[in-house]
Amino acid sequence: MVYLNLSNAVVGKTFFSSSAVILSFTLAYVPLLFRLGYGYELHLVSTIVFTSLGVLITLFLFRGGSEGFRNEGKIRVVFGFLIFLVLVEELLLNSIFAVYGFALSILSLVLLPVLAVLLGRGWLRMAVEAVALVFATRVVLSPFPSAFLSLSTFLPTIYVLILAALVLYLTYRRVQARTVRISRGKRSLAVQIGAGSGIGLALGIVEYFVLKPKPIIVGASFLQTVVYILIVLVVMVGVVEELLFRGLFQTSLERVMPAWQAIGVVSVIFGLMHIGWMNPLEVLLAYGAGVAFGCMAVATDSLIAPITAHGFGNLVLYLIALS
Amino acid sequence: MERSLAVLLLLFAFSALASSLTAGAPLFGLSTILSVSVLGSSVLGSSVLGSSVLGSSVLGSTIVEAYAGAVVASQLWLSLVVIALLIYLELSDPSYGRLRKILLELRRSWLPVSGLLVVLFFIIVALKVYAILMG
Question: What H or E segment, with its residue span, contains residue B13?
C-alpha cells in the first residue's frame, strides 16, 4: 500500500491525518447530500463513509512514528475491526433495530475482555478493555425504562454509574490516577484552563449552528436550569467522557501505537458515539473535537484542558440555545 | 482505591443528588454522547444546519418506540449474562483446583464487567419492585 511518512511532531501528524479525514469526508458528503437529500439514508450512508475514511486514513494510509511498536499490523487490524463494531452497534441502537444494538452492546462488553486476553497482557489488553467500557456506556442505559429519559435524575444517575465502572476498573487493574492523566500536568493551570475555555467556546458556537438543539428546560426557574446545566453537562459529562476517552482509552493506545494514530482512533470512535443526533455533521464535529481534546491531553499530559474544553463547549451550546 | 478517584466518585454522587434536588421535572432537550437519550426526548427536533433530518416523520417515532421495546429485551439478556458470568466466576474459583492459565486470565478480565453488570441487575430489580409497589 502507498503511504506517506509524516513529520515527527505528534500535533503536526494528528493535524495532517485528521485534516485528510475531514476534507475527504466533506468531498464525499456534498455529492451525497445533493443525491440523497436530508433524511435517514443520508445519515446512514455518510456515517459509513466517515468510518471507512477514518479507518483507512488513520490506520492504513498514513504512517510515521511507528518504529519501536511491536505487532503493529495486528494492532491496526484489531482496532479497525473495533471501530466498525462501534459503528454497527450505534447504527443499530439508533434505528428501529435498537433491540439488536443493545444485544451487540452487551455481547461486546462481555466478549471484548476475551479478545483482550487472547491478545496478551499489558497496554494492548487495557486498550481493548477500554473499548469494552465504551460499550458499557450503552449497557448502563438498559435498566431504565424509556419513561426515565425525561426525568432530570436520569443523566446524573447514568454518569455516576459510568464513573463508578471506570473507578472500579482502574482500581482493579491498579492503574494510578496519574497514568490516566488525572494530574496537574506539564503546563500551568491558567494556560490549561485558558486554552480549554477558548477551544470550548469555539466548539460550542460551531456545534450550536450544526445542531440547533432545543433548549434544556428544567423546572420552572431559569436558575434551576443553569445549575443543572453546570452540574450535569459541564462537570459530569466533561469529566466522565474525558476520563474514559482521553484518559483511559487514549493513554492505553499511546503505548501500543504512535500518539497521533491513538488520537485518531479514539476520535473516530468518539465521533461515532454521536450518531444518535442523526446528523452526519455532528459526527464530524465530534471527531474534530476529539482530535483537539486528544492533542491537548498529549500536549499538557493532563485532562484539565480537555475537560475544560468539553464542559465549556456544552455550556456555551446550551446557553445559546437557552437564550 | 486511589484517593483522587474516591473523591471524584463521592463528588459525583453528591452532584447527582444536588442536581436531582434542584431540578424539577420533566426535562426537555438533551445532548450527550448518550445519544439514545436524545432519541427519547428531542430527536424530532434534531436538524442538519437547521433542516430537519427525521422531521416529524413516522420513522422518528418508530425509532423511539423501538428503543422502548429494546430496553425491555435488553434487561432479560443482561440478567441472563449476569447469571452466566456468576456461574463462570464460581466454577473458575482457584480453590476448586488448578485451572488452565487462559481460564484464570479470563476470570480476572471478567471480574470488573461482572461487578458492573451485578449493580445494573440490582437496579433492574429495584425499579421493577418500585413499579409494582406504585401500581
Answer: helix B3-22
In a domain, A196, yes or no: yes
Task: Give whichever of A120-124, A154-158, A310-314 has the largest mean pLDDT.
Answer: A310-314
Judge whether B44 and B59 are in contact, CB under 8 Å. Answer: no
Bridge-partner residues for B47, per DSSP? B52
What are the grid coordinates assigned to A130, written together?
477500554
What Cα–Cα distance (Å) separates residue A308 from each residue in A197, A274, A304, A313, B60? Answer: 6, 19, 6, 8, 34
A30: containing domain: 7-322
* C-alpha cell recorded at residue B34: 448518550
Domain range spanning residue B63? Answer: 3-133
For residue A2, is it within any domain? Answer: no
Compute the distance between CA of residue A276 and CA of residue A266 in angstroms, rounded to an integer.
18
B80 in contact with A, Cβ within 8 Å: no
Instruction: Name residue B3's amino acid.
Output: R
Task: With beta carbons under 8 A apart, name residues in chain B contacting A94.
Answer: 35-36, 39, 63
Concatenate the DSSP letters of all residues of A16-73 into one string: HHHHHHHHHHHHHHHHHHHHH-SSHHHHHHHHHHHHHHHHIIIIIIEE-S-TT-TTHH
Q: pLDDT tens for residues A148-164?
A: 766 777 788 888 999 99
pLDDT greater than 50 at residue B49 = no
CA distance A220 to A307: 29
Q: Which of B11, B12, B81, B129 to mutate: most A Cβ within 10 Å?
A: B12
pLDDT tens profile A48-66 = 999 999 999 999 887 777 6
ipTM of the complex: 0.89
Contact A203, A292 (CB under 8 A): yes
**Number of domains chain B contains:** 1
Residue A1 lies in a domain: no
pLDDT at A275 over 90: no
Q: Is the pLDDT of residue A309 over 60?
A: yes
* Alpha-carbon gap: A292 to the closest alpha carbon of chain B (Å): 17
Q: Number of folded domains in chain A?
A: 1
User: Does any CB of chain A come closer than 8 Å to the CB of residue B102?
Assistant: yes
